[in-house]
């Protein structure tokens, strides 16, 4: 490698061609890695674009779960889940929380009664900085088993072809479990009455190094009050935000953080499959929401509730969604933070 | 012959960093293009490798200031001489600036910055959407500048080795 070749000077054209060839190979390898020659690759940009309604995305807002309202409060860990994970956030104590109630829609102005799925973003920050972020929804199962299928679902939903959904369901029958819930479960009249589920499975590591496959849910203290979508519609397009602000003003709202432990052999890779109801649960503590803030100026606005931000003692499982969500949320975050002028802060005088 | 070459420590640093930086750039463009589970380990490696490159670059600049560099061939045309000097300043700049931009960009977005499997780095800029946008754009664009400069550097090194045969390539070659 160090000895210069002893070719005669007259061969410099060949050398130059070889050098150009080597540089070109380098450039092509880079482009290949970047996916420029792989139009089939499922990129986070594709998912984010597929989420956009026909009228275009809500600029400055999250590309999904676009409508929401911030909250702050605390997580009071009971210490009981410390047997499952040595994460600091599960050790007995009280840790500050920033979160967000939201609707699973790409339209930041969607009327509440038009959105079936509700969600919660959560960021718990213990003093050592080993923070835990999560993004949960109220459906008991995720609609599909893989990110690729989610992308196909978005395509089928947006398609004008009459058979698009039918053929999607034919290829992804697991979707029917979600549809069954969406059609039959009662709607509630408050964010405070929803149970929010991680759906994705994660791996907790305890102090002895043993690993436990888990999912978690936030189980509300407030009793659910059923309401029809028609009745909810009559209460106004933004009723849920007004209601939760008022309710929290009247007193803190609470949820139990319930960790469900898989039995050996339970499927961890597919969030579309629920685990049997008899699985062991551990109540890790209580989420207390004691203040609600408008999102435009709120502390949740510029937080990415990336479910792959996990403290030491927790990690992702073979469920492919946290990675895909992390990638797509990042693209959404990069886009919306660059569009801040389209979603002015109210301090600037233009409250949306 | 010895004084015509970089010191062994400089050569080790050069080739070690060459591998790190190439890996870094390929991981960078690869990770942002995928939603597969490998996205998460790639991002984790990207952060740790970035901090490693920052530390190595600081060490390398200190070593360069201490040991200097072999003189360029006397017959090297002036434009090539200027290009050689300038490209090296840009290289050193990028080796320092790119990791800092990445770190600052994560800080501006309120992401935790965790490297080497558990070392939690503090935020180096305040949380800010506009700052995040600026830093992210720079980090992204400069990555392509960095890679283009590496291709130019590689081409120039091979030009010295195969066409000019003036000893410049041998000054940094990995082996004697």
Features:
heterodimer; A: 352 residues; alpha+beta; Catalase HpII,  Chain A, domain 1; 10-stranded antiparallel sheet; two-stranded antiparallel sheet; 12 strands; 23% strand; globular; disordered N terminus; B: 176 residues; mainly alpha; two-stranded antiparallel ribbon; 5 helices; elongated
Summarize the structure.
The complex is a heterodimer of chains A (352) and B (176). Chain A is α+β, with helices and mostly antiparallel strands.
Low-confidence stretches of chain B: none
Rounded mean pLDDT score of chain A: 95
> How many domains comprise the coordinates of chain A?
1
The biggest sheet of chain A, with number of strands, parallel, antiparallel or mixed sense and barrel status, is:
10 strands, antiparallel
What percent strand of chain A? 15-25%
Question: Could you characterize what this model shows?
Answer:
The complex is a heterodimer of chains A (352) and B (176). Chain A has 352 residues and is α+β, with helices and mostly antiparallel strands. Chain A has a single domain (12-342), classed as Beta Barrel (Catalase HpII,  Chain A, domain 1), CATH 2.40.180.10. Chain A is built from eight helices and twelve strands. Chain A has helices at 12-34, 44-51, 147-158, 164-171, 175-184, 229-234, 239-250, 321-338, and strands spanning 67-77, 93-103, 118-124, 132-137, 187-188, 196-197, 202-205, 211-220, 226-227, 253-261, 281-293, 314-316. In chain A, the strands form two sheets. In chain A, strands 1, 2, 3, 4, 6, 7, 8, 10, 11 and 12 form a ten-stranded antiparallel sheet that branches. Chain A has a two-stranded antiparallel ribbon with strand order 5-9. Chain A is globular and about 85 Å long. Chain B has helices at residues 8-31, 39-67, 78-108, 129-164, 168-172; strands spanning 113-115, 119-121. Chain B has a two-stranded antiparallel sheet with strand order 1-2. In chain B, a hairpin with a 3-residue loop joins β1 and β2 (119-121). The N and C termini of chain B lie close together (11 Å). The mean pLDDT of chain B is 95. At the A-B interface, α1 and α8 of A face α1, α2 and α4 of B.
């Amino acid at each position: 490698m160090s000895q210069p070749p002893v070719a005669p000077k007259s061969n410099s054209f060949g050398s130059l061609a070889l050098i150009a060839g080597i540089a070109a190979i380098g450039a092509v390898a880079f482009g290949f890695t970047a996916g420029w020659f792989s139009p089939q690759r499922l990129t986070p940009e594709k998912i984010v674009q597929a989420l956009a309604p026909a009228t275009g995305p809500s600029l400055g807002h999250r590309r999904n779960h676009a409508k929401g309202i911030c909250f702050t409060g605390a997580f009071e860990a009971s210490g009981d889940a410390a047997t499952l994970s040595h994460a600091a956030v599960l050790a007995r104590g009280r840790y500050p929380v920033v979160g967000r109630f939201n609707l699973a829609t790409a339209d930041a102005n969607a009327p509440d009664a038009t959105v079936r799925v509700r969600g919660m973003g959560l960021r718990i920050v213990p003093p050592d900085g080993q923070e835990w972020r999560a993004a949960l929804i109220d459906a008991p199962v995720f609609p599909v088993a893989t990110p690729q299928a989610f992308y196909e679902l978005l395509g089928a939903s947006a398609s004008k072809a009459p058979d698009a959904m039918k053929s999607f369901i034919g290829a992804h029958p697991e979707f029917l479990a979600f549809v069954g819930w969406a059609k039959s479960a009662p709607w509630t009249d408050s964010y405070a009455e929803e149970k929010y589920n991680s759906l994705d499975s994660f791996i907790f590591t305890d102090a002895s190094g043993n690993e436990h496959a888990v999912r978690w849910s936030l189980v509300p203290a407030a009793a659910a009050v059923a309401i029809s979508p028609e009745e909810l519609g009559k209460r106004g397009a933004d009723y849920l935000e007004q209601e939760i602000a008022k309710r929290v003003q009247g007193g803190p709202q609470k949820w139990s953080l319930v960790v469900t432990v898989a039995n050996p052999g339970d499927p961890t890779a597919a969030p579309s499959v629920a685990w049997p109801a008899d699985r062991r649960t551990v109540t890790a503590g209580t989420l207390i929401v004691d203040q609600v803030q408008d999102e435009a100026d709120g502390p949740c606005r510029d937080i990415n509730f990336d479910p792959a931000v996990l403290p030491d003692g927790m990690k992702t499982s073979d469920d492919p969604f946290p990675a895909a969500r992390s990638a797509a949320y990042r693209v959404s975050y990069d886009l919306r933070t660059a569009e801040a002028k389209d979603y002015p802060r109210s301090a600037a005088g233009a409250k949306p | 012959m010895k004084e015509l070459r970089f010191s062994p420590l400089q050569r080790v640093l050069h080739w070690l960093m060459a591998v790190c930086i190439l890996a870094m750039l390929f991981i960078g463009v690869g990770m942002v293009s995928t939603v597969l589970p490998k996205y998460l380990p790639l991002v984790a490696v990207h952060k740790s490798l970035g901090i490693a490159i920052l530390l190595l670059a600081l060490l390398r600049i200190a070593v360069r200031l201490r040991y200097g560099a072999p003189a360029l061939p006397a017959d090297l045309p002036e434009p090539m001489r200027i290009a050689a000097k300038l490209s090296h300043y840009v290289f050193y700049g990028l080796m320092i600036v790119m990791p800092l931009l990445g770190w600052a960009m994560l800080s501006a977005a309120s992401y935790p910055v965790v490297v080497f499997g558990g070392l939690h780095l503090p935020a180096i800029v305040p949380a800010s959407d506009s700052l995040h946008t600026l830093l992210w754009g720079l980090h992204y664009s400069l990555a392509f500048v960095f890679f283009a400069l590496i291709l130019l550097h590689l081409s120039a090194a091979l030009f010295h080795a195969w066409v000019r045969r003036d000893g410049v390539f041998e000054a940094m070659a990995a082996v004697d």
